[in-house]
Design a protein that fits this description.
Helix 3 (50-75) packs antiparallel against helix 4. The chain has helices at 14-27, 31-39, 50-75, 81-102, and strands spanning 42-43, 106-107. It folds into two domains: 1-47, no CATH class; 48-104. By secondary structure, the protein is mainly alpha-helical. The chain has a two-stranded antiparallel sheet with strand order 1-2. The chain has four helices and two strands, in the order H-H-E-H-H-E.
């Protein structure tokens, strides 16, 4: 079921329409999603290039390695839990920071 029941129609000239299409493509959103984001006070960020996704893939691999280390250490009944947890937390915090920087929209100050 559609969650939005109010239709708004706007008229744009050719240049405005091209700009809207270009900006929506840049941020990886549909035109309507971009407009709604702007209305609620968020400035979407430009979609990151392939380097961002390569870094995220590498970080996931590091996380998987941490998990494998933990499993092996657990099976040997030897694990420095505090050290492992600290490193895993750092990795998760860094991934969240990267996502915020590259993917999440900026909240405009009002």
């Amino acid at each position: 079921m559609r969650t939005r029941q109010i239709k708004k129609q706007v008229w744009l000239n050719r240049e405005e329409a091209m700009l809207l299409k270009k900006k929506a493509k840049k941020v990886g959103l549909k035109e309507s999603e971009l407009v709604r984001s702007l209305i609620v006070g968020f400035e979407p960020r430009e979609k990151p290039d392939d380097r961002f996704y390569d870094v995220m893939k590498e970080m996931r691999a590091i996380g998987n390695n941490l998990n494998q280390i933990a499993r092996k250490a657990n099976s040997l009944n030897f694990i420095d839990y505090q050290f492992y947890k600290c490193e895993a937390d750092k990795l998760n915090q860094f991934m969240t920071l990267i996502k915020r920087k590259y993917l999440l929209p900026d909240e405009k100050l009002q």
